[in-house]
């Protein structure tokens, strides 16, 4: 069934996207391989935070440069994504280490025991939780960064008289429009994963206070909050970097002409 669905996806991407669709499908495969390698390396005992950062770099390079080509838009988006990822790693580490959301929640442990999962994996679960949050965010951050960088570049192309401040303001206005849809996408993605457990809570007459104090609820809710923070950060950082880079290129060209 999985192979059938993958084949249908491939055919649809080729029919609708032609060469671009084929590149997108290959990008998806490369990213899947990167995630599998990440899991294997972390399982082998390598530092999960370092591995996560380099995985995000690889995914960014493949998604931006292989799929969309090397240009001003993808370069500024790449710099923005890497800078945002570094900031998020530090920020998430500070929060996650104090909120104690790492590990497998009690509500999910019974399932693991039923299929004889071993609990003794000898890994830093806090670092793994941080890796899960960052990798879960990288797709949305990439999409948002590309959208902001591209729209900023197009605005400048059609309005070359704009100064840096005006270009940045236009970029932020477009970012605000993107933010709402991106946040909804992430919100429903996390909530849909949580629905089965919510039904379980309801059937077993869990009180509201017990639900909001459960680790599994805290994990999902904190991930949603980090998603929102990450999306806001990437919009601000991409708008700043892109407007600055475009203005520098403009100044260099004007000096070359004179």
TrEMBL record:
Top-level taxonomic group: Bacteria
Keyword terms, alphabetized: Membrane, Transmembrane, Transmembrane helix
Protein name: Putative membrane protein
Lineage: Bacteria, Bacillati, Bacillota, Clostridia, Eubacteriales
Keyword Transmembrane: yes
Pfam family, one: YibE_F
Transmembrane segments: 45-66, 78-101, 130-156, 177-201, 221-246
